[in-house]
């Protein structure tokens, strides 16, 4: 395969990656919207669509492996393909988080929400926006943008802690709220993890361009561990 | 890094007006495979030949700089060139077995070196052919003509011929260029074994081979050493744009 054909195939893979990214972005929004409006049918659609996300991920993985096997790419070509494999894995997991939120919607069912959802949709918007720009940074090979995005993860973490504190007060005021508060906390946790995984994508952008493997959020994950939760 | 076996210092070499190597400085570590690669006309073969003093008799050439083997300048007056070539063996792209049998090919060098004892010669034949990963294929027909061997076998015979002299350094100029993937694989496996004992400098026949075998890799372009790094770094994250362009197929 001459260089031009390789470039074309690489471009196609990047387009497919972007398609997968769009599917995941939509899944995040759709899942949280279904939860907010308690739209069980919409939640079921998110769950069903997760299969398409998985299939798209496998298709990209397969085509990337074929390109590696047949072209034996080196240097930046190899790094970009390694990054594609890594990013598709991250996207697939984000898709699972969205599916998890949709499942929570089904579990809560038609039982009235203990409170209107405000911060959870905000978390979703923020995480989705970060994801969108991270993929943009990958396609444009924009290291500066990739370095900037993870700093915004603090906003998602702050929203998560806010959701946590608020749900705790609902639990304390009425033990009947425990089950639903737990579900909602779980949904918030999935969004917090989604934003963390955006950081991983940004790290791959930097790796692709510079060859350096860097940890962008040194304390990533701490906010999700037990000791990181507000006392 | 391993000990330095060969040190090349500010080596400049020209054939008439044509500069083949331009101010090359690099170290070749012992017990490792150093791959010298790049587009044709880059100076790779010239470099190998200079390490073996094979260019001594070519008219109209000029050289400056030094080539040190174990710290000693091989171009210093009084250097025993015969001894140098015993310590530094070379295998070329085209296998050129000598007329005669397989055994005679391997014994030729040791006999020239004065070894006559049949038991000693037999031991050398077995060891050399074994090290070259050819023994199992030829042990029952040592006294048949070498010309009857396949290309890959002939190339390993040439390798065995070099190994018979127990050199310290092996220079290999595209030793697998005409070979199928299986023969190529055998020779590469052999090199992995041999580097435990020898210092190997290899001009590969492809970038993929360079990446497969290189402990260290040196990229040459038009007589210039562009970049020299451990192989795992050079092929995943080259420092120089020209190396990047060459190994990703953007030119050359």
What does the model show?
In chain A, 79% of the residues lie in helices and 0% in strands. Chain A has 7 helices and no strands. Chain A has helices at 3-36, 40-71, 75-108, 119-140, 143-148, 153-173, 178-210. In chain A, helix 4 (119-140) runs parallel beside helix 7 (178-210). The termini of chain A are far apart. Mean pLDDT of chain A is 93; it is low at 220-231. Chain B has 252 residues and is an alpha/beta fold. Helix content of chain B is 35%, strand content 27%. Chain B is built from 10 helices and 10 strands. Chain B has helices at 44-51, 81-87, 102-112, 118-131, 135-138, 151-163, 181-194, 207-213, 231-234, 241-247, and strands at residues 4-15, 18-29, 33-37, 61-69, 72-73, 88-91, 169-173, 199-203, 216-221, 224-230. In chain B, strands 6-7-8-3-9-10 form a 6-stranded mixed sheet, sandwiched between helices. Chain B has a 4-stranded antiparallel sheet with strand order 2-1-4-5, covered by helices on one side. In chain B, a hairpin with a 2-residue loop joins strand 1 (4-15) and strand 2 (18-29). In chain B, helix 4 (118-131) packs across helix 6 (151-163). Chain B is globular. In chain B, 43% of the residues are buried. Classes of the chains: A mainly alpha (231), B alpha/beta (252). At the A-B interface, helix 3 of A face helix 8 and helix 10 of B.
């Amino acid at each position: 395969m001459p260089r031009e054909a390789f470039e074309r195939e690489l471009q196609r893979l990047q387009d497919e990656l972007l398609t997968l990214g769009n599917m995941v972005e939509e899944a995040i929004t759709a899942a949280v919207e279904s939860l907010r409006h308690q739209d069980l049918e919409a939640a079921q659609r998110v769950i069903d669509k997760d299969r398409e996300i998985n299939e798209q991920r496998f298709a990209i993985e397969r085509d990337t492996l074929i390109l590696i096997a047949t072209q034996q790419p080196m240097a930046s070509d190899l790094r970009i393909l390694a990054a594609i494999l890594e990013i598709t894995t991250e996207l697939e997991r984000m898709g699972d988080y969205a599916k998890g939120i949709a499942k929570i919607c089904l579990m809560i069912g038609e039982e009235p929400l203990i409170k209107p959802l405000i911060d959870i949709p905000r978390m979703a918007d923020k995480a989705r926006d970060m994801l969108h720009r991270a993929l943009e940074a990958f396609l444009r090979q924009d290291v500066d943008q990739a370095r900037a995005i993870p700093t915004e993860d603090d906003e998602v973490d702050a929203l998560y802690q806010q959701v946590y504190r608020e749900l705790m007060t609902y639990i304390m005021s009425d033990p009947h709220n425990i089950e639903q508060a737990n579900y909602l906390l779980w949904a918030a946790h999935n969004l917090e993890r989604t934003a963390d995984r955006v950081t991983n994508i940004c790290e791959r952008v930097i790796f692709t361009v510079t060859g350096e493997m860097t940890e962008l959020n040194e304390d990533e994950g701490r906010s999700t561990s037990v000791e990181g939760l507000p006392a | 890094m391993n000990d330095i076996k060969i040190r090349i210092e500010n080596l400049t070499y020209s054939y008439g007006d044509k500069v083949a190597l331009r101010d090359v400085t690099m170290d070749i570590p012992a017990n490792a495979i150093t791959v010298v690669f790049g587009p044709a006309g880059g100076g790779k073969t010239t470099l190998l030949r200079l390490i073996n003093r094979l260019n001594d008799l070519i008219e109209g050439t000029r050289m400056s700089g030094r080539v040190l083997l174990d710290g000693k300048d091989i171009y210093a007056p009084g250097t025993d060139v015969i001894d140098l070539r015993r310590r530094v063996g070379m295998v070329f792209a085209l296998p050129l077995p000598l007329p005669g049998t397989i055994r005679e090919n391997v014994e030729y060098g040791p006999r020239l070196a004065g070894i006559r004892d049949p038991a000693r010669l037999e031991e050398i034949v077995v060891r050399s052919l074994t090290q070259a990963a050819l023994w199992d294929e030829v042990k029952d027909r040592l006294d048949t003509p070498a010309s009857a061997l396949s290309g890959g076998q002939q190339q390993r015979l040439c390798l065995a011929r070099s190994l018979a002299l127990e050199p310290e350094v092996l220079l290999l100029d595209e030793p697998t260029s005409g070979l199928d993937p299986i023969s190529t694989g055998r020779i590469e496996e052999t090199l992995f074994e041999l580097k435990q004992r020898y210092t190997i400098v290899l001009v590969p026949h492809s970038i993929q081979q360079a990446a497969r075998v290189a402990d260290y890799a040196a990229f040459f372009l038009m007589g210039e050493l562009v970049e020299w790094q451990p192989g795992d770094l050079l092929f995943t994250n080259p420092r120089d744009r020209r190396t990047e362009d060459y190994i990703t197929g953007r030119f050359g």
